[in-house]
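Appendix B, example 12.
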Amino acid sequence: MRSIKHYRAFQIDPDGHVFGCINLVCDDDEEAKREAAALVLAHRIELWRLDRRIAKFEAPQEVARQ
């Protein structure tokens, strides 16, 4: 039986404050990482499952400087 897992992708502003949260439902950590990495546009994303940080994805350097 397949179990799904719930994750949260937090959007982090340049000052390090959370300004948004996107809920993700994925089969495993690897799928969640791919989904969260696709969310990186102008701000850093931190992927969490419960109280465990899974990964951090930085904004591209040229966007972060603007």
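Helices lie at 29-37, 61-64. The chain has one domain: 5-64.
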